[in-house]
């Protein structure tokens, strides 16, 4: 199991590096596919993955990304309203086939798996986005790794006993501080070799710390949904890791926060 998880992790890292390096439509298409896959995994929990309602949700995902790809962001709010009207239209005309909970699952699914995840692409298309996008992974995967190490070696106090009994307060602190330190080091090299900004070490350390804090919420949110619905993994798409939502749960929350912190703190 460990070998399978390790090999899958290596493949994931290589794919992520190649996709993010190429940028543009390659990164956009990859994030679009991730969003559709994550939407499918979430809707399957609520038995809406292969219904008309579910396909309306997938259509909204594609429409949203098309507006991003062709830089038609002024129409995004209209697209949101139109998508909700279509979903509600299906709800009322097919009544009582679907319930209000089904509607909320699709609408929530869109914002959770698509709107928030799309900020990976939004960061990549920023100036120096190929370098800045790495902060997402510092705040999520680096935080996760260092939190695990700190928890295993020093963990004594449970952070959330009912939701995630293996996580400790010591692990949380270790992950947050670790992400802040790695972020600060990254900021030093960014300032020196990429683009000079004032107080780069402090700026990137703060981004690393806050991004890691949000990553923890993302991880626990995915765990809470699984516990509410009595499932172990969202799917078995990634051997040893589970599904898209199992592997990218923290990135979903981290990406938009990192985007706005970068905008506010580096410009």
Give me a quick take on this structure.
Helix content is 76%, strand content 3%. It contains eleven helices and two strands.
Largest sheet: 2 strands, antiparallel
**Low-pLDDT segments:** none
List the helices and strands in order. Answer: HHHHHHHHEEHHH
Rg calculated over all Cα atoms? 19 Å
In whole angstroms, the N-to-C terminal distance is 45 Å
Shape: globular
In order across it, which strands form the biggest sheet? 1-2
Q: Give the mean pLDDT.
A: 91
SS element count, helices: 11
* Content-based structural category: mainly alpha
Percent of sequence in beta strands: under 5%
Helix content: over 70%
Number of domains: 2
Q: Could you tell me the number of beta strands?
A: 2
Describe this protein's structure:
The protein is mainly alpha-helical and 267 residues long. It folds into 2 domains: 101 residues, no CATH class; 140 residues, no CATH class. It is 76% helix and 3% strand. It has 11 helices and 2 strands. A two-stranded antiparallel ribbon has the order 1-2. Helix 8 packs antiparallel against helix 9 and helix 9 crosses helix 10. The longest helix has 29 residues. The chain is globular, with a radius of gyration of 19 Å. The mean pLDDT is 91.
Features:
single chain; about 270 residues; mainly alpha; 2 domains; two-stranded antiparallel ribbon; 11 helices; 2 strands; globular
Per-chain topology:
Layout: H1 2-22, H2 24-45, H3 52-69, H4 76-93, H5 100-115, H6 119-124, H7 129-132, H8 134-154, E1 158-160, E2 164-168, H9 169-193, H10 200-228, H11 244-266
Antiparallel strand pairs: 1-2
């Amino acid at each position: 199991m460990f070998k399978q998880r390790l090999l899958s992790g290596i493949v994931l890292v290589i794919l992520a590096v190649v996709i993010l390096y190429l940028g543009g439509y390659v990164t956009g298409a990859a994030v679009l596919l991730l969003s559709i896959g994550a939407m499918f995994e979430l809707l399957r929990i609520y038995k809406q993955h292969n219904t008309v309602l579910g396909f309306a949700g997938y259509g909204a995902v594609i429409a949203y990304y098309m507006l991003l790809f062709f830089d038609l962001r002024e129409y995004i709010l209209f697209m949101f309203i139109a998508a909700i009207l279509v979903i509600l239209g299906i709800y009322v005309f097919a009544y009582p086939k679907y319930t209000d909970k089904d509607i909320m699952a699709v609408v929530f699914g869109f914002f959770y798996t698509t709107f928030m995840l799309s900020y990976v692409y939004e960061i990549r298309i920023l100036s120096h986005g190929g370098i800045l996008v790495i902060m997402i992974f510092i705040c999520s995967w680096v935080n996760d790794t260092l939190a695990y190490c700190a928890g295993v070696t020093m963990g004594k106090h449970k952070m959330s006993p009912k939701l995630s009994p293996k996580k400790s307060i010591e692990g949380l602190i270790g992950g947050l501080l670790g992400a802040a330190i790695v972020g600060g080091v990254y900021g030093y090299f960014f300032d020196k070799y990429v683009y000079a900004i004032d107080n780069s070490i402090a700026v990137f350390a703060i981004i690393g710390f806050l991004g890691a804090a949000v990553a923890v919420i993302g991880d626990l949110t995915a765990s809470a949904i699984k516990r509410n619905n009595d499932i172990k993994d969202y799917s078995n798409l990634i051997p040893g890791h589970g599904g898209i939502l199992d592997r990218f749960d923290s990135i979903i929350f981290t990406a938009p926060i990192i985007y706005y912190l970068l905008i506010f703190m580096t410009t």
